[in-house]
Amino acid sequence: MGKSYERIDGRLRSFIEEQPVFFTATAPLSGDGTVNLSPKGLKGSFAVVDEHTVAYLDFAGSNAETIAHLRENGRITLMWCAFQGPPNIVRVHGRGEPVFRDDPRFTELLGHFEDVDVTRSGLRAIIVVHAEHVRDTCGFAVPYMTYDEERTLHGDYFARKDDEALDAYFQKKEYIGRSMDGLPGLPLPLPPATF
To answer: Model confidence over 132-156: pLDDT tens digits?
Structure first.
């Protein structure tokens, strides 16, 4: 039923690029630490960089668990499900890192996301994942669901925030600078946008 792949290309790449939502899972090294699972969306915010590397835009939110876990240990799993068409589930297990706005690689990586207006999104980092194991499974039990349209609430809210207001938003949130388990999260003050 399941199959492993050496690279992200062809049918596999097409499948993951077509999905409107995917999920990320990370965890700290501590055995009693908090496992994090997050849905990710926004059309154009995911990119296949090469056959072994993917990336996605990390937008403003109420916590920074994924960033904190990646800074501590780098472990991450991404998952896509077919909610329409033939059943399929794809997982990319690998090592990830947050590339922050003041990193010299940030601007080059941003070039992979030309279909997203990053000036109105509260963009705080780009998560880069180097695939170590790629696998698909049947997905026979995943239900059919329809995709209607993108929500605009996030973009509408953060479009009104310049860098100073965005930093103030992050400073007042409990789990942005530090994770729920006390790990370093998003570096604050927020580096200014150069995009």
So the answer is: 999 999 999 999 999 999 999 998 9
CA-to-CA distance for 46 and 170, rounded, in angstroms? 23
Helix (H) or strand (E) holding 167: helix 163-172
Instruction: Give the residue from 113, 57, 54 showing the smallest Cα distance to 78.
Output: 54
For residue 80, what are its two tokens? 């896509």
What is the number of alpha carbons within 13 Å of residue 178 lying toward its C-beta? 5
- Could you tell me the two tokens for 157? 């809210």
> What is the rounded CA–CA span in Å between residue 193 and residue 107?
10
- Which amino acid would we find at residue 108? E
pLDDT in tens, 159-168: 999 999 999 9
The pTM is what? 0.95
Instruction: Report all structural domains of the chain as residue ranges with CATH numbers, in order of start.
Output: 3-172 (2.30.110.10)
CA distance 70 to 66: 6
